[in-house]
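Milestone M4 deliverable, item 7.
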Amino acid sequence: MSNVMRDSQIMAQMKDEDLGYMSDMALELAQMADDSGLTTLAYLFRMAALEASTAHSVLAEPDELPRQMTSH
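Output delivered:
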């Protein structure tokens, strides 16, 4: 395996871990906002968590992406 391929795999794995962390953190912040009565803020954090988890699953299954885009 070339260095470039290995580096891109490592970068993808790091990005994947970062997105998982971001999703978890956004859910924690949403819970804290809920506890403080800040429902709008909690909603925004939940949307951020959803975005991060969606991006996380797209990265986890890169083979699925081209087929989804060309099926229209």
